Each structure stands twice: as C-alpha cells, then as structure tokens.
Amino acid sequence: MAHQIWFLTGSQDLYGPETLEQVAAQSKEVVAKISAGLSAPVEIIWKPTLKNTADIKQSMLDASSDPDCLGVITWMHTFSPAKMWIQGLDLLRKPLLHLHTQANQSLPWATIDMDFMNLNQAAHGDREYAHAVARVGVPHKIVVGEPGSTDVKSRLDAWAWATIGWNKSQNLKLARFGDNMRFVSVTDGDKVSAQLQLGMSIENYGVNYLVDAVAAVSNADAEKLTAEYESKYEVAPELKAGGARHDSLVYAAKQEIALLKIMKDGGFDAFTSNFEDLGALKQLPGLAVQRLMEMGYGFGGEGDWKTSALGAILKSMTPKGGGTSFMEDYTYHFGPGPAKILGAHMLEVCPTITKDKPKIEIHPLGIGGKEDPVRMVFTASDAEARVVCLVDMGDRFRIISNEISVVKPNEALPKLPVAHAVWEPKPSLPVSAEAWMLAGGSHHTVLTNAVSLETIEDFARIAKVEHVIIDEDTKLREFRRELQWNAAYHRFSERI
To answer: In b/e form, how buried is each residue of 358-373, taking b as 16+ CB within 10 angstroms?
Structure first.
C-alpha cells in the first residue's frame, strides 16, 4: 500500500477563475516545498481547490474511505467561509493537520496592491477555518510558518509518522499465546475498548497452537537458520554446529520459524507470551522473540498485550536505522554519581537499540520450569530516548512518556546474562519514578531512540488518548495537578 496524505486547499468562487488558477498553482508549489526532505514514507497528494460545501463534504468522505489515505492537510489559501467545511469536518475519520502558511515568504513592500491582498488571504482565511475546526471539535495539529522552513517540515514530518502509527493501530492484529501472568494488574485491560478506540484486535491462542507449529518445523530448515545466526551474531561456541548445546539453538530457530509463520499467515503485527503458560514448549522463547522484534513485530511479556501493541505501533513509526524495544525497569543505581535505571527483561530485548554485535548465549532461567533458553545478550548504545507505556485507567486509556538518556554502564556487567539498557531518566530518578507511579505507569515499557516525543504527542491526539509527559521540566506539584485536571476533563467529557 502506498501511503498518501491528501493536501486540500480552501477558497471560494467569489474571486473569479484567474485568481483560482493562481490559487491552484501556488498550492501545488506549497506541496512541493513541504514534500521535499520528509523522512516519513508518505506521498503528499495535491487535490483540486475546494470551493463549496458539496465538494468539501465529498472530499472528506473520499479521504475517510480510501485505505491509502493516512491523513489530510488543509490550507485556506484565500478566504473560504467555514460554514462550508462544517459537515465535511464532522464526517472526517482520518487525522487532520491544519497548515497555516502562505505562498510568499516576504511581502513585496514596494508593489503590494489589493490584487495581491485578495489573493494572499491565509492570515485571516485560516483563522476563519480554524474557528470551525475548534467548534466542531476535531482533534488536529496546527503548523504555522513558511512552507520551506526547517521547523515546518520537521513538525509536518512528526505528524506524518504519527499517521503511519495510527494506520497501524487501526489495522493491528495481536496474538496472545496464553493469558496474563496470574494476579498481575497492569498487564490486563479492556480489549473491547481498545478495539473501539484504537482499532486493534487482541485475540487469544492456546499455547499448544504454537507448540504444534514448532513441532512442524524441520531440522533442515532450523539448521539453515542457525547458520544465519552464526553469520550475523557472535554465537557462543557451545551453541554452534557441533557444540555441546547446539540442539538448544536449533530449537530456538524452530520457535522463530514457527512464530514468524503464524504472524504472516494470520496477518498479525504483535504477540505475547507467558512463562507461566508454556505447555509442551521446551524453552521460553527468547531469541525468537528478539528476532521478530528486530523484524518490526511488537511484543509484550507475561501476556502484556497493551505494551506489545504499543511496541508494534512505535516500530511502525521508527525510521530505518532507529531502535525500538520492549523494556522493563528492573533495578536502580542511586549513586555514587548520577542516579540510573538498569532496564532489562528475562530475555526479550530488541537488538535494534544497540550498535554492537549481539552475542547469542544460553543461560539458566530460574522461573518457568523449562530448559535453559537461548537469547541475545548486548548493551544498549548511548542515545537520547524515551520510555513509553499504555495503561488502562478504567474509564480511559493513558499514554505515559518519560524522556531519558541511555548511557554506558558505570562498569562492565560480565555476569548479567540478558540484553539490557542503562539510562538516566529526566528530570531525575526520584522525580521521574514518583511521577511515573502517580500516573499509574506500567513496569513494562517500550524504549525508543527513534520515535520523537512530538510524534507520540501527535499520535495520542489523533487517538484521543490522554498523554502525560515526564521530562526535564516536570515538577511534581504541577504534575499532580495535571493528573487531577485530566481526570476531571475525561470524566466530564464522557458525560457530554
């Protein structure tokens, strides 16, 4: 599918055909300017100038029903009486961005006349339109500035990536192998509400479905995949062909092949596992999960479907070369020096967050009662990043983001047998941890060094999901008030 964003220019018949020809020509120039240098894999498609209620309504219906259209950019080049837009805006079901711009960067001071003024009216035409957007209550983003400027392009790009994430969410299918870990609260949630608001379909599959798929994989296919492992990663000698524990690597390869087949055959974007519910699986999937995340699939441990779905969404918004991974706050370093968090999981951390060559190793796992699982081991590379979670607050969903700096560990971790990341949360560990817990944040997160905070903000706005941010400017007294105000707003808005 070719991702498109439609560019709709507003005007009216008042100005005559010559002016409208100029409007069309200049709006095409604006499209060319904003298209140049976008990192998001989308094509901005110019559409003919809209001049009346019927055409606007039809354009919004067409955009909403076209599977290739991810969102709509609107610009009122001239004055476009906004009552013409009300029905169309109310019918729009795709993300909306209002570009407040004009064709010229500078005024032609010496030659400006009323012909120029009548042609270039976005300064007040966009304000008329913006009132209607606010009145109808359409979630939208406003970007202001000269179309070729770096700031305008950056903000448009962030939103374009968010439309890709929203499209992923709307079509997302997730397979849960087993249920949630027993007695755990935050990994549970309302799957019906998730489908209604976010589009995602969360479906359960007995673990024996995966067991049978693993059993169907041939030794020859698995051996072929282990050869790929040896060429791409640093494989422990005991796991290599002829090594004492090579059979464990072969079994891990069978798990990967089986999982990938299930994902492709079922059109799934994400999945979960649970160490408490492994059935006849010989080992908890570790390497297989890491490999599928590397391919772009979302994952959540212990049946955590919300984090898995969020992982798939964030991965869809991750530019090539960026890193996004399932993560968990595991333990703290309070000092000496800056306070830090050591993040990891039992096995499942995605190798896209390291620039180093991962090692494939086998180590005991003290829970689950199965054979020792194979996994990649590495340290996440330094980067400015964020950890993000999606939680069910009962009456609404909430996204929580914390800005972090991934840093080198203070010392080597030679006995830590799992992939891991060390980071300094902003504004500090004590403030960020308290704020995170006040917001009801999960212990499972998605760590991304590639998806910008602005893109996450844009996604949350499109999805009509509450989004709270913990960053360098967070102050706990204000943060508590924000949570209280948010709660009041959402409860009030539900009643109306």
So the answer is: bebbbbebeebeebbb
- Contact, 309 vs 322, CB < 8 A? no
Residue-range domains of the chain with CATH: 4-170 (3.40.50.10940), 172-495 (no CATH)
What band does 31 get if pLDDT is binned at 50, 70 and 90?
A: very high
- What is the phi/psi pair of residue 357, to 5°? -80, 115
pLDDT band at 13 (very low <50, low <70, confident <90, very high): confident
Whether 275 and 367 have beta carbons less than 8 Å apart is answered as yes
- Look at residue 116 in the predicted model and tell me its pLDDT: 86
Structure token pair of residue 311: 């992982």
Altogether, the residues listed in the chain come to a count of 496
- Confidence tier at 136 by pLDDT (50, 70, 90): very high
Mention every residue, 6+ apart, whose C-beta is less than 8 A from residue 16: none
Decide if 160 contacts 167 (C-beta within 8 A): no
Distance between CA 128 and CA 133 in Å, rounded? Answer: 9
Residue 230 has pLDDT above 90, yes or no: yes
Q: What tokens does 282 get?
A: 């010989």
* Burial group, residue 459, by CB count within 10 angstroms (0-12, 13-18, 19+): buried
